[in-house]
């Protein structure tokens, strides 16, 4: 009842067994080729995904750089506009001040004339008093106090 595992050469069973072994060997080779093919596809997919990620990162970095440049340009334009406005305000203020100069000179001249007039009146008053004192020598020193402390 024991079966003999050895099959005689030349028997159809032996040839079937050889065919199976050959097929099995070919299947192993096909399986290995399929595995290598899958591994190659996985590696290609990985490289493709890495390239996509790098491209996406590069695009985003370029976008950030463009945004930064736009913001800087906008700020520089704002600064330039402010400087122009300041120049305009400075020119207007200078114009207003230059218009005030003749007014100030006119007021100063009026004050000078008033002081000169007062000086002239004081001179006349002192001359009259001097004439009076010269006419009546006994009236010297004058009774009017010239200083509040004596």
UniProtKB/TrEMBL annotation:
Pfam families: Remorin_C. The keyword NAD does not apply. InterPro entries: Remorin_C (IPR005516). Keywords: Coiled coil. The keyword Coiled coil applies. It comes from the Eukaryota. Residues 39-136 form the Remorin C-terminal domain. Residues 72-132 form a coiled coil. Belongs to the remorin family. This is Remorin C-terminal domain-containing protein. It comes from Noccaea caerulescens (Alpine penny-cress). The lineage of its organism: Eukaryota, Viridiplantae, Streptophyta, Embryophyta, Tracheophyta.
